């Protein structure tokens, strides 16, 4: 099947669920907090609901995608983010806001594993890593768009979220027509867990949890930190956020870097830059340009690193793309749940600078969890049964879509 026919709507859906539905909350949190009278602790608690709902839905999605089909799961994700955006935009109080956050966060858990299945079914093996990492970089495009909309002075946060909901509806319809339904003659081989896979996955579980914990305050409180420091206009604050998205597009090349330099190099490179970004933000009050350097580093390294985790997971569970994506992304969210709640409390009791320094140092701990697995396509190709299944699937797809 044509690469762009699946990748482009995939990028749009990831941009909508992760960019508009989930991470935009940190951009608008200062205004939301002022309008609703939320403290840093309350804001951190509500923000943690994004990750908490994600944890539940990514488990559900990982286990159920092969039963209901990837298209149905992607449609459920699109519907969930649509409901979440509408609820956030119309929320009269913290309770309704929290409900909207739960729906918006749930959409991100529902969307990633089925795209892994979709790519494994309809994209040829040599292009699967590239397709997965480019779809994953859709978050960056969503972040860029949210930053641009925040610069439109006549739009308040409520109107902006309602505009996002209209976009979510359009993207949902696009994916409905673009994503193939699961033909009854197409087989999904999910494989089975074995001791080797479990042992190999220990490092990615710990690494993902630590990285999720260390990045939580940047997503939730970085803009609030910069605004609190003073000397930054609304335009500058929006540019700070846009840079996360602009540089995040670089994350789309993580597949190529892994191919050329190896998984271990890509991981260490990404973790180092990600931690430096949080530590740099501590010096915001010293040098005016520091926040923009920090957001650029964070955007590039976060999307890059999630791409690395995605490829790492799929390499471990080579015959179960959904599980390979679901495990690291689940643990990333678990870390962010804990990190977001603790960060709000630390900010209230200490300050922003100390909090970001602590989290940046914690991120460096993940360097000890570098990947050793280097699985090549031969692991799949040597499995005659799996190779035969993939060939049969391609024949069905070629007849169905004439591509």
TrEMBL record:
First-listed, main subcellular location of the protein, grouped into a coarse class: membrane
Ranges annotated as spanning the membrane: 43-61, 73-91, 97-122, 134-155, 161-183, 204-226, 238-258, 265-283, 289-311, 323-344, 350-370
Subcellular location: Cell membrane
Annotated keywords: Cell membrane, Membrane, Transmembrane, Transmembrane helix, Transport
Domain Major facilitator superfamily (MFS) profile: 5-378
One GO molecular-function entry: transmembrane transporter activity
Entry-linked InterPro entries: MFS, MFS_dom, MFS_Efflux_Transporters, MFS_trans_sf
Pfam families listed in its UniProt record: MFS_1
Membrane association type: Multi-pass membrane protein
One GO cellular component term: plasma membrane
PANTHER family: CHLORAMPHENICOL EFFLUX PUMP RV0191 (PTHR43124:SF3), PURINE EFFLUX PUMP PBUE (PTHR43124)
Name of this chain's protein: MFS transporter
Organism: Staphylococcus lloydii
